[in-house]
Design brief:
Elements (H helix, E strand, L loop, with lengths): L2 H9 L16 H53 L1 H20 L7 H14 L3 E7 L3 E2 L3 E12 L1 H12 L5 E10 L6 E12 L4
Antiparallel strand pairs: 1-3, 2-3, 3-5, 4-5
Helix pairs in contact: 4-5
């Protein structure tokens, strides 16, 4: 069929004759053009859908790349400072060991009570009572409260608190209650001293 004949067949076609009901009787040139247009349209839509999916994948890969870059930079920084971090860790372990050495062990608690009593006597105080209370467990350590009742002058009480603070073991003083005593210039003090034991020793 010559090209002129194809053009002539297109001119003879009435658009009103091209309905979906008469699809089978459409002239061959119209069918070929329709198939070509349908093929091109399906290729375009499929390619566009494929590009959109690839765009989503590309965004995901870019996000993953950014996260991997951050991880790489963090690890590169750690590697570059590995020696400094090891030295810092060693210093921290030494400091931790020194602090642990200031915490009394179970067998040292009676000796600590004697040290506290000695500081009080040296300060000129009279003890009414000194009693170890029940242990109180925290997340990493155990508190050992010591209830202390004593009598003396204001300066004697201050010297006692200073002496307890200077003990080689960690002892903290809490809940001061000071009241006038019987004698002139005499005060009574109830105080809660606390020492601590590291839970890791258990």
């Amino acid at each position: 069929m010559a090209f002129a004949d194809i053009l002539k067949s297109f001119k003879d076609i009435q658009p009103s004759d091209l309905t979906l009901e008469s699809l089978g009787s459409w002239p061959m040139p119209v069918k070929v053009v329709s198939w070509a247009l349908a093929f091109i349209l399906s290729c375009f839509l499929g390619y566009n859908q494929h590009l959109q999916e690839m765009g989503v994948q590309l965004d995901q890969v870019r996000t993953t790349e950014a996260e991997l870059r951050r991880q790489f930079e963090a690890k590169a920084f750690q590697v570059a400072n590995l020696d400094a971090l090891r030295a810092q860790l060693k210093d921290m372990e030494e400091q931790f060991g020194a602090l642990l050495g200031q915490l009394p062990k179970d067998t040292e608690v009676p000796g600590l009570l004697e040290d506290i009593t000695e500081k009080g006597v040296d300060s000129g105080l009279k003890f009414s009572s000194i009693a170890l209370q029940g242990e109180q467990a925290a997340e990493f350590y155990v508190e050992l409260p010591i209830d202390i009742n004593l009598t003396g002058t204001y300066h004697d009480l201050g010297a006692f608190a200073s002496g307890v603070a200077g003990l080689p073991r960690i002892v903290t003083l809490h809940d001061f209650k000071i009241a006038p005593g019987v004698g002139s210039g005499e005060l009574t003090m109830q105080i809660m001293a606390k020492t601590y034991r590291y839970k890791g020793e258990e």
